[in-house]
Specification:
By secondary structure, this protein is mostly beta strands. Among the domains are: about 70 residues, no CATH class; about 120 residues, Roll (SH3 type barrels). It has 4 helices and 20 strands. The strands form 6 sheets. It has a 7-stranded mixed β-sheet with strand order 10-17-11-14-15-16-18, with no helix packed on it. Strand 14 and strand 15 form a beta hairpin.
Amino acid sequence: MNIASLTNKLVKLALNQPKVLPSSCCCIRHFHCSQDVLKNFSTRVPKNSKIGSWRFESDVDPTKYTLKPLTVAKTGGRGPDGRIWIHKIGGGDKVLYRMRDMKREGPKEGEPLVERVNAVIKDETRSANLAVVAGGDRKRYIVASENMKAGDIIKTSGKISAMPVRPSEGDAHPVGSLPLGTLVHCIERFPGEGATVATAAGTFGVYLRKLGDKCVIRMPSKREMVVSQECMVTVGRVSNVDHNKTKKMTKAGDNRRRGKRPASGWWQRKTGYHGRKIRPMRPPMVYEKPHVDKPEVFAFTV
């Protein structure tokens, strides 16, 4: 076969290829990602990327705080490539997403920041209740404590005192200013990062001891964590303590209303007949400095 005939065949092959319509290249919807990390998909998405569990429409900017409830867009468990990544997701009732302010920042000198609780409402997307608080010229949602109610006055201080303070439930202080044995929630791992530990309904940590400028807190998982004394915590226990008792599934339709599809495969309950391994408690987690490279937000399109 000479070069001329080979070139003619290649030209015919290229001309016979089907044309791609412009409409098939357009995305149906554009979604913004929140800051939660979707695990176990490191092979399908680029490295150093974040994919959130909540998707919003393209006209919503999730980086700007707002008191307006946001409409959550449904994906049916499909990833950015249009394929099903999570099989047990689909359907469900429409829910409204409310932005929580997880940073309780107060002045390090002088009088603390005083805020008033306007209302305590139920959150449709999380287990803990939300409190609408207002102070100065700002109004926001925060995680409500167990006995918090409308009309309460809460204080936020960033001052580390030499003597332990006597806080009330709902107040936020650096963990180094609290007395030993205090029940705390909304715990920061690094100063100024925002609360990441003990934010679910009914959870709390216990301030155990102080090691120099470090404080040891027992997490809800019974594991200990060592954080800086400047990390902010909220005094008390998270609200909606009976969440695991009152929100039980009574029929199969309850899970479908929550957006969970039926599972497939054979599952057997572990009876404990042959025993289970008893492992020792793992060593405390020491948080000294945050990660240098923060993962980028992955543009989620369907």
